[in-house]
């Protein structure tokens, strides 16, 4: 037998569970090979030392802890429905920065939109005053009240451009 084959039989040889022919082969190899004899002596000493140690009782909840670790996470009972909804109400780390960012964006929108709304209101006031100050129609009242088919075709006049805000682009104003 080789050293590798003998190593496989060490424990069986120590417990005397080998058949007599295999036990004789192991003993003859141990007499010829000092390395295997030292390994078997060291193994015997280790086994005797371990057997001499006092036995220790495991903690009372060891079985439960091991079983809980072996069970998959899905085996735990599910949370009640209301607890899942209440979890959304718990404070989050990102909630305060998100609220601050929303406030900053809202303030920027107001700061940008307010001047343009004010300019639009001024433009509407200016065009309303222009329409109010337009001269009354010079057509006779009979023509004003006549149906559209009876009226002569209107002359095409170029639109009159009135700059309410000089330097600002405006739409042309056509008097009616």
Question: Your description of this structure?
Answer:
The chain is mainly α. The protein is built from 8 helices and no strands. Helix 3 crosses helix 4. The longest helix has 38 residues. The mean pLDDT is 75.
Q: Overall 3D geometry?
A: rod-shaped
Ends distance: 121 Å
**% residues in beta strands:** under 5%
Helix content: 55-70%
* Number of β-strand runs: 0
H-E string:
HHHHHHHH
Average residue pLDDT: 75
Major sheet details = none
Provide the gyration radius in Å.
51 Å
Structural class: mainly alpha
- Can you count the helices? 8
Blueprint (SSEs and pairs):
Layout: H1 3-8, H2 10-14, H3 20-32, H4 34-52, H5 62-70, H6 81-87, H7 95-132, H8 141-145
Structural descriptors:
mainly alpha; rod-shaped; single chain; 176 residues
State the gist of this model.
This protein has helices spanning 3-8, 10-14, 20-32, 34-52, 62-70, 81-87, 95-132, 141-145. With 176 residues, the chain is mainly α.
């Amino acid at each position: 037998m080789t050293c590798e084959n003998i190593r496989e039989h060490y424990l069986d040889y120590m417990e005397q569970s080998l058949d007599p022919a295999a036990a004789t082969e192991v003993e003859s190899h141990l007499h010829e090979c000092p390395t295997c004899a030292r390994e078997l002596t060291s193994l015997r000493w280790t086994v005797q030392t371990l057997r001499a140690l006092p036995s220790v009782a495991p903690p009372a909840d060891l079985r439960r802890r091991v079983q809980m670790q072996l069970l998959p996470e899905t085996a735990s009972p599910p949370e009640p429905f209301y607890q899942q909804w209440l979890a959304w109400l718990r404070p989050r780390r990102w909630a305060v920065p998100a609220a601050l960012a929303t406030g900053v964006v809202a303030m920027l929108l107001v700061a940008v939109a307010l001047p343009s709304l004010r300019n639009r209101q001024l433009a509407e006031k200016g065009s309303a005053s222009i329409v109010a100050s337009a001269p009354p129609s010079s057509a006779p009242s009979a023509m004003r009240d006549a149906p559209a088919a009876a009226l002569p075709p209107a002359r095409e006049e170029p639109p009159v451009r009135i700059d309410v805000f000089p330097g600002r682009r405006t739409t042309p104003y056509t008097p009616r």
